[in-house]
Amino acid sequence: MSDAESRAEARIAPVRDDVHGRVALARDFYTDSSGPLRRYGHAELSFLRWSAARGVLAPESSDPPGSAWWRSVNEELLRDKVEASLLCAGVRGEPRSKSVEYWMQCIRTPSPASWYRAHNASIVAGYLRHEDLAAAESQVERFMINVALLRVLFTHAMLAEPRLALGRLAGFGPRLVDPRSRTVKWFLDLGRSFPSEYPVITPARETILDEHAIARMLDYGVIAPRLPALYEFSAGALDEPRLPGLLDAGVPAYVWQPQERSLWYVGNTGPHLRVIARATGERLLWQPSPAAHRAPWKRR
Asked: Which of 108, 136, 164 is where one domain is finished?
């Protein structure tokens, strides 16, 4: 283990079971930075505060305990940023992963593009590394985990490939999701979409149908028809070829069982969703029978 890795672990260990310490460490990465990086933490810190309030970051010893999966993915992100900061400060060592390299590039040359690449690389790495922990989550939580992933990938595409993300409305994309702007939280804040407690006690179907109307329009009318292209874009942007494997014929499939496929049809209703899809240059077709083993969203 390099000096940078050892020192990163020394900073992570004291906050592993300290929710407020995690939030403070994440915040300090931005507030302790000199220059423009100070302005890049809006969406990440907002999502982190929501996660803390839900209880998913609480330690196993809490009553009720938090989520081992959410804690582990959050720790991946924290560790990558801390290690990158140490390496940029001259601590000896080599970056242990591509995501650490991306954070080093972001620290040295901050830009919306470099921030999204670093942030999303850390998140995707956490998803792939901790599939076993995700499998222990409830069905409704795994649904939310999939939505969180597709939202963060879509937001990156709105900035880097706005025509892919928004079609003829591409001109709005980069301005809306610049991480230095507070509007980016509109796309990444799951608090507007799903219950604020952990564990979620309502059944998955009810939870999906209770999703805020605007969030549902985003997920089903805008993002859903683009999922295969979106995951392919992200695979290339993050240099992570395994990412498209988290879809099954266009349907989110991270730690998702084939027999659960019908849940992705639940919110995909209403003629307004077709109007929204067409407005952004896509066509959404409702497939009424999950038994046909076809994707509920198809692109033409």
From this structure: 136
